[in-house]
Design goal:
184 residues, 41% helix, two-stranded antiparallel ribbon, 5% strand, mainly alpha
Length: 184
């Protein structure tokens, strides 16, 4: 019997909140008994559910489908592609296609991580669970992201300016330069 090396998927399943505790001969996703000749999942549906919750490109598509291709904040949709049969002339159809192509660049849907994923888009991660994703239009996504970048409070700025910098610069020099000159 050949012993296989540990796989990233198995390490993720060990800590994932959606997966049941590991048991021999059970599905890694739902915990049901695995049929013969299956190694990890009891069915393709369980395998698809794992990838839809942990791999970004699959999770993004699954979130858009779940949200019925609408923004969760404002309800906006992608512009509909024109049907050729709806136009009497080829020129009218091509003109409608040009308008649609221009509109879809601006009015696109994006998938947002509710709890920020912090650069884990290219790896298996529990940050991509469908409960952590929402479909937003570009405008709502921009507003959401801007709200996450709120400026720090004045108290936090004072604490940050008092702590010494690890780069060897003088933290008080910037504060002194910012103060207006005092008359003596």
């Amino acid at each position: 019997m050949k012993i296989s090396a540990p796989v990233k998927r198995d390490a993720l399943l060990a800590v994932c909140s959606l997966a049941p505790p590991a048991r021999p001969d059970s599905c890694a996703w739902c915990g049901a008994a695995r049929p013969p000749l299956r190694r990890t999942w009891c069915s393709d549906r369980c395998g698809d559910a794992f990838w839809a919750n942990h791999w970004w490109s699959v999770a993004r598509t699954a979130a858009k489908r779940r949200d019925r291709y609408r923004c969760r904040q404002c309800g906006a949709r992608n512009p509909k592609r024109p049907a050729e049969a709806a136009y009497t002339t080829r020129a009218a159809y091509l003109a409608a296609m040009r308008v649609w192509r221009a509109a879809k660049k601006v009015a696109r849907l994006e998938v947002n991580h509710i709890d920020p994923c912090l650069g884990k888009h290219g790896q298996l991660s529990c940050a991509h669970h469908l409960v952590n994703l929402e479909t937003l239009c570009a405008r709502c996504h921009k507003l959401h992201t801007a709200a996450l970048r709120t400026p720090p409070s004045p108290a936090a700025e004072r604490v940050a300016s008092k702590s010494p910098s690890s780069h060897g610069s003088r933290p008080n020099a910037t504060r002194a330069a910012a103060r207006p000159a005092q008359r003596v």
